[in-house]
Amino acid sequence: MIPNDTLLDMTTQLEILKPEGKKPEKRVNGIFWILLINLGIYVADHVFQVRAVKVLYLYHNWPAWYQFVTATFCHFNWNHLSSNLFFLYIFGKLVEEEEGNFGLWLSYIVTGAGANLVSWLILPRNAVSVGSSGAVFGLFAISVLVKMSWDWRKILEVLVLGQFVIERVMEAAQASTGLAGGIRGGSALQNVNHIAHLSGALIGVALIWLLSGISSQATEPDARNNKK
Fold first, then answer.
1. How far is CA 170 from CA 80, 173, 214, in A?
2. Which of 29, 37, 65 is nearest to 135 (CA)?
3. Three-state SS string across 135-189, please?
4. Which pLDDT tens digit goes with each residue over 192-213?
5. pLDDT, average across residues 173-186
6. For 28, 152, 176, 222, which has the most beta carbons within 10 A of its beta carbon?
7. DSSP string covering 56-97
8. Among all residues, which ones are annotated catalytic?
9. Are 204 and 142 in contact (CB under 8 A)?
């Protein structure tokens, strides 16, 4: 027979190993709405050929203020849309799991509209910008930054995502340098707006830096009050 003391020790150890309770899983709905809006606008534009959708494009010669946002939901063709949908789902889901629905929408709109603004400032007046690529690159950067932790699983995610982000951002930087040279030289523009890719990633980094600074300032008064 097993002594009572041994049984007590085993029971205590098992109680310690028990999970304290399952944390409620965060509902991830925002990214699916973003995907549906992108897909719905594409169907209206290219399948049903609704002319009103063209008003959502960002025309650099005379842009309306709302086009900097609405253009992030429009795409030129199916290949353009499908690649963006894939990356939107992966990185948008990661951002929403960490920052919630509001954080996802804020990240998507700020990085997408910001990338369009930079494109409008740099590209020629006869250009037209559409696509969620700027927002995608912004979500790339944000998903890496919000995953930073000393947890080994999060470190692995940061390494995998970070390597991918760095490669894509470096490609975008090289391409944007070539594009700027082409603009000065008067040659034809590339179809891919790498300036939006690079600026979207940089705006994503700036957004996380800004929000983290605001949150740290907000916690300082609470910490001081607790010490009193």
1. 21, 5, 29
2. 37
3. HHHHHHHHHHHHCCCCCHHHHHHHHHHHHHHHHHHHHHHHHHHHHHHHHHHCCCC
4. 567 787 889 899 989 988 877 7
5. 43
6. 176
7. GSEETTS--TTHHHHGGG--SSHHHHHHHHHHHHHHHHHHHH
8. 133, 197
9. yes
